[in-house]
Specification:
With about 190 residues, the chain is an alpha/beta fold. It has a single domain (about 1-185), classed as Rossmann fold (3-Layer(aba) Sandwich), CATH 3.40.50.880. The protein is built from 5 helices and 12 strands. It has helices at about 10-20, 50-55, 60-70, 80-85, 175-185, and strands at about 1-5, 25-30, 40-45, 75, 85-90, 100-105, 115-120, 125-130, 135-140, 145-150, 155-160, 165. It has a 7-stranded mixed beta sheet with strand order 2-1-3-4-12-11-10. It has a 3-stranded mixed beta sheet with strand order 5-6-9. Strand 7 and strand 8 form a beta hairpin. The longest helix is centred in the C-terminal third of the chain and has 11 residues, at about 175-185. The radius of gyration is 15 Å and the shape is globular.
Length: about 190
């Protein structure tokens, strides 16, 4: 199994380090040709409109849609979750539309609205550390969405088919649980 990490902006290297810890093969993705031979793709945090602009300029946006259509799995964190959503507002923006959620881009506002929380999860019995940095808010979920963790009354970790999304940054934690879940999802 080999995982791609979109390396446009954001802390994509932290995802790489987490995958290294878990012994998972990976490479950075900057263009459509980098998707060849991958089983899953991580869309990291950053600024979703910047990701979108560069992905379109490089031909990666349509290539990622085709990757999904061919059965590839996806994991989006923060801005990556925005890019996976079916519906984006606050302000509205185009997305890959691979996950049946509606998401508010500027959910928690400025950089100062960043925090680390511990909360329950369906991944295991122990609480999960969740690092929020100007996190988006999942406003609604479709019928096929499984909510794996919530915080402040909102879903923050969701799963549907071969797509996983977190509004927080699990790559900034020492806890590998979310990445382990993604690898298990990808290997199915």
């Amino acid at each position: 199994m080999k995982i791609g990490i979109v390396a446009i902006q954001g802390d994509y290297e932290a995802h790489g380090k987490m995958l290294d810890r878990l012994g998972a093969a990976h490479r950075y993705v900057r263009g459509p040709d980098d998707l060849a031979g991958l089983d899953g793709v991580i869309l990291p945090g950053g600024e979703s409109s910047t990701h979108l602009k560069v992905m379109k300029e490089e031909g990666l946006f349509d290539a990622l849609k085709q990757f999904a259509a061919n059965g590839g799995s996806f994991f989006g964190t923060c801005a990556g979750a925005i890019l996976l959503a079916r519906e984006v507002h606050g302000p509205s923006q185009e997305s890959l539309g691979l996950l049946d959620i509606a998401i508010l881009r500027n959910g928690y506002g400025r950089q100062l609205a960043s925090d680390v929380h511990m909360g329950p999860t369906k991944l295991r019995k122990e609480p999960l550390e969740m690092v929020f940095i100007r996190a988006p808010i999942i406003e609604s979920v479709g019928k096929g969405i499984e909510i794996l963790a919530e915080d402040a009354g909102h879903p923050v970790l969701v799963h549907q088919g071969r797509v996983l999304a977190a509004t927080f940054h699990p790559e900034l934690s020492d806890d590998p649980a979310v990445h382990q879940y993604f690898l298990a999802l990808t290997s199915r």
